Amino acid sequence: MTKRIEQRRTFIKKSAALSGALAAGALGFPAIARGQAGPLKVGILHPVTGPLAYSGQLSRLGAQIAVEEINTAGGIKSLGAKIEPVYGDAQSKPDVGVAEVEKMNEAGVSAIVGAYASAICLATTQAAAKHNIPHVVDVGVADQIVERGLKNTFRFGPGYKVISTAAMNYLHIMNKLAGNPAKTVMIVHEESLFGTGTAGLLSQQLPTFGFKIVDVIKHANPTRDFNNIVLRMKSLNPDIVIPANYYNEYALLVRTMKQQGVQPQAIFSVLGGAASSFKFVKEFPDVANGIIDVNHWYNPKDKRALALRKKVEGMKDQFFTYEVFLNYECVYLLADAIERARSTRREAIIDALAASTWDKTFMPYGPTKFVNGQNQGAEPLVMQVLKGDIEVVLPNTFAQRAPVFPWKGKS
Amino acid sequence: MRRARGSAVLELSILFPSVLNGLTTGAVYALIALGLTLIYGVLHIINFAHGAALMVALYGVYFLHQRLGIDPYLALPIMVPAMFAFGYGLQRFVIGAASHGKDENILLVTLGLAVVLENLALFWFRSDTRTIDTPYTLSTVNILGALISTPKVVAFAGALVAAAVLLLVVGKTDLGRAIRAIAKERQGARLVGIDVDHVFAMSFGIGLACLGAAACFLLPAYYVNPNVGNGFVLIAFTIVVLGGMGSFAGALLGGFLIGVVESVGGLWLGESLGQIGIFLIFIAVLLFRPQGLFGARA
Amino acid sequence: MRGLLGIGAFGVAVAMLPLFVTSGYALNAIVMTLYAAALGQAWNILGGFGGQFSFGHAVFFGSGAYAMAVLQVKLGWNAWAALPAALAAGGAVGALVGALSFRYGLRGSYFALVTLAFAEVFRILANTFEFTGAGVGMIVPLKETVADLQPASRAGYLWLILALVLSGLLVSWWLKRSRYGAWLQAVRDDEESAAALGVNAFRVKLAAIIVSGGLMAAGGAFYVQYLHYIDPHIAYGPAVSVEALLGPIIGGMGTVWGPLLGAGALHLLGEATRGLMGDAPGINLVIYGIVLILMVTFLPSGIVGLLRRRLANA
After folding, report:
1. A295, A157 Cβ separation under 8 angstroms
2. What's the pLDDT tens digit per position in B77-87?
3. Looking at CA atoms only, how far is residue A329 from chain B in angstroms?
4. Cβ contact A171:A183 at 8 Å
5. Contacts with B298 from chain C: Cβ below 8 Å
6. Which value does ipTM take for this structure?
7. Among B3, B13, B129, beta carbon nearest to A248
8. Can you tell me the distance from the alpha carbon of A139 to that of A83, in angstroms, rounded to the nearest whole number?
């Protein structure tokens, strides 16, 4: 019963597609001279429902804005076509993400941007690979995403190995600049892919920089109460606390620290969930003040970034977060590749992405260069919350001010 | 990186605050479990929508604070009756009507309700996590050297009061008598003229009213988003079983016990593995003493 | 015999679908529907036929999934060799849970809750040990060869899951007409009376949970081979447990075709609602929940019950 309905639907879809293609062919003859005929469809896939909905919706917003801007400016000029976004909801589950990829494949997308969470990205890039659809990974920091030899996968931003290594180097530099006041470190991380991976790397390599790790604490998602962890912090009294977790837990943790009067020399987050979040800074200015975060960030001096920030902050209830600007840039990256490919064919776009040297980005990455699907120049920046704003403090090329370390300030 | 944790537990300076924290966290769990145990004890419903209902209550408290500036504790006289009405309506017009009394159907109806409530919240309020800031959010009470969060101490008191009120209502009022009669012998109660549907709805309403109170005590120390209820459901079930299905004293004490186990377990085994203590207790109680601490043998 | 013919016809028809259906999306939908049906069938053996409702069937699913993943990734086993081990893992966990629960006479909601607790315990354990990848989970490398139980084509996966569904159908058919099945249903309907008639309720239920566990574990093994990733939440979390019981209850508990019909109906509902309101996330799931409640309201005996009534009145 169900199978026949599915077959009928498929048949109808296929006939429609066929007639559409014929019509396009008949009418679009001049277009062939410039590039491939047919509409340019791009899949935008994120978890917009389920536990990851907040990040998923912001991710979609970033992509949406980019698509609108590109289309307003005339779309992909070499094709004379506008981008037709095909939105998908991964419902915070990898298997739903896979189903959406299949749907997008049927819809004839030329590329996919998404899917925010590492676990979902792992599944969707694989599913896309089966149909040779280029898949630009927006956030997903797990390094396995680009270590499977999939030719269709391109990650614009950094993975957690690069982020953790950078974090350690910056921590070391910051400490040295202040005269090495900090010796002991405590890591508090969430239990899944990104937290555990980050913590693992940090605990292996921080000692080589001369830091002593007094404890590594793993916690669940969700964690309802951080009093125990903070109690332990109180008794071990580390100079630096390194949190790596998602928004809700991060916020609870630092609120609890404040409440219990725990103030280390620095809260130095690595991919801190709430640390570089304007939302958190707005809601808890006292608690957030002074927090340092090594995270995805834009070049604060870039006009394009500032323009986008203004646009997003002008929208009701929206915040300018990494989900927004990473997705925005991923769409622009893709658009540039399609321009150069002069085609909606998937293989052509994959080749164009692989050869991409796109450098109009406001991310601090320099000219794009993909090796095995990873953008080599991708790196995080170090931000600090100061007086209600988030400013870049390291590296010097992008810094807006020097880091305040150790943190002695009253909240 | 494993460090010897055992020694840390024995340090009184950490153990004592940890136990106190456990008690206060457990108080909030108890408030949530009080409602669930009544619903289970009377209607024999395993209410899968309990977490979603808590979420609804939390949003209620949030908006009362955001839009009308009402302090969460002062919101109690609004939230409790509002959640009562909500619960009454749900049971009378949705759950009771849809399930035709079959157990497996009730399960699915409450499941479906949970999905509806969570996604309505997602649609209306979006997925952002909301918090409130009150003058006492970050303040603490010094109990013999341990700094315990003020909202949690208030929650502790609140749980005691709520349990007392419930015991009074069920023990001394006509409604309470009817509830106890139905819990013991449904058909018989019907035969002596008790309006079973009405009492069911009243019970469900009271159960959700407890969530209204729980939300007022919980929000200052926590947050709300559409998925927030999920983290409490399993613990609430554990407490109901531990305390004895239908027993308020059991839910209260069970809540405290579970809170302490969670806290000390987290201290000893790490926050992740520490959770296992709760469920091992759950299994042990079910196997060896299914009536729980205070329940009557089924 | 008619029942067997029906199952056979169904098997042949579905096996031939890839010849007519080439849409990857449709094939994936069929595979996921069959997968849900397989989970439901496993649950149905214990819940529908045996009357023991489990809220934690994920405990078997996850064990099968992790067995598959760990044996392949950590011990280098071939997938085909790992498969029977995965089934055995499910059966073993079934024996553990069953022996404890039934030995102590847990029934009804108590049994349901204890299965939930077991699932949580296993989730926390899987989340703790490096052996299972802890919170990070495990990735099964992409091989895309049949020798590694990863067919390159969708059709291959369809035949794999179809084989599992057919096994489930056959077991359910057998339960309907065998002596053991009669014992099991007798225990479901009235355990005391069945015991009085000489049925060893403990052994009957234990056998049911072992088979149920094994089949559920097979579903977990399939998941790992199809989606290549497992973590404690996916393996032992409530989502799988809910998925396992939704189909049979909607479709008709204790029937041969119930879980399949239920899985199909729910999948259609999911697809229909997912397409709606793409811009306003959440509304589609609200509708899903409402329809679910309506289905339960108006089909108290499931779809099979509805069909039976229609056929009886025709």
Report:
1. no
2. 999 999 999 99
3. 23
4. no
5. 110
6. 0.85
7. B129
8. 22
HEC-encoded secondary structure of C177-242: HCHHHHHHHHHHHCHHHHHHCCCCHHHHHHHHHHHHHHHHHHHHHHHHHHHCEECHHHHHCHHHHH
Residue type at B74 in one-letter notation: L
pLDDT digits over A131-158, tens only? 999 999 999 988 889 998 899 999 999 9
Distance from CA of A299 to the nearest CA of C (A): 31
Angle formed at CA B236 by CA B204 and CA B102, multiple of 5 degrees: 45
> Is B225 touching A (CB cutoff 8 A)?
yes
DSSP string, B116-146: HHHHHHHHHH-S--B----TTTT-EEEETTE
**Distance between CA atoms of residues A357 and A368, nearest Å:** 4
What are the sequence ranges of the domains in chain B? 17-132+146-226
| Amino acid (one-letter) located at B175 | L
Q: Would the CB atoms of B271 and A219 count as touching at under 8 Å?
A: yes
Pairing of strands B146-149, C138-139: unpaired
If we measure between CA atoms, which residue out of C164, B270, C36 comes closest to residue A189? B270
Given a contact as 3+ CB pairs under 8 Å, which chains touch B? A, C
End-to-end CA distance of chain B: 47
C93 and chain B: CB distance < 8 Å anywhere? Answer: no
At B245, the amino acid letter reads: M
Element holding B203 (H helix, E strand)? helix B196-218
Q: How far apart are the first and last CA of chain C?
A: 24
Length of chain B: 298
Residues of C in contact with A64 (CB under 8 A): none
Instruction: Give CA B221 to chain center in angstroms.
Output: 16
